[in-house]
Amino acid sequence: MDHHAVAGLGIPLAIMVVRETKSTVGEVTAITAVCLAGVAAVANLIGALVLVRTHLRDPGLLDDSLMLFTTLAALLAAIAFGYGAVLLARRDETGRWMLIVAAGTQLVLGLFGLLATLVNFDSEYGIHWFAAEPVLRSIVVGFGGVPGAVTAIVNHSWAAGLSAVALGALVLLPAALPWTASYTAARPRPDVGTAV
Fold this sequence. Notes:
Structural class: mainly alpha
Shape: elongated
């Protein structure tokens, strides 16, 4: 085999290596997004359970309307994160977009919590919510998904707001990366029809 033939094989081989590397990176970012979305789904479920349990123990501790809407939002977020993770694990682009929307919403709620803290927002409706927590406990509260973000808004907690932002950002980043999009775009298509 002459030198030109060997050089000619080098280009397709290099392209194959680059494609394989992109596929591997995309697989890693997709798996990371799926795992973190699972964590976010569980966090929202736990947050919803804490709200319901607290309300059943002491109905006067939480504002009824806010508790109801926050619990429903947390359950919706848990479904979006969970189902989006399942679809992304199947290399379905719809799952990636579900995670982007759910994580973006979580991030925005956390930012609202930080903004409410910054401007010392008070709704003047006399909302009863959890009492102000120490910083370490507020960090844990903030990782409670939507309930954590709402707690940051109502109680003006920097720590809870930053945690809620971090939870959304941790899922949003790997889901929005171009390698994850390439990974879902490279999903093998099933053969349509039968061979004759």
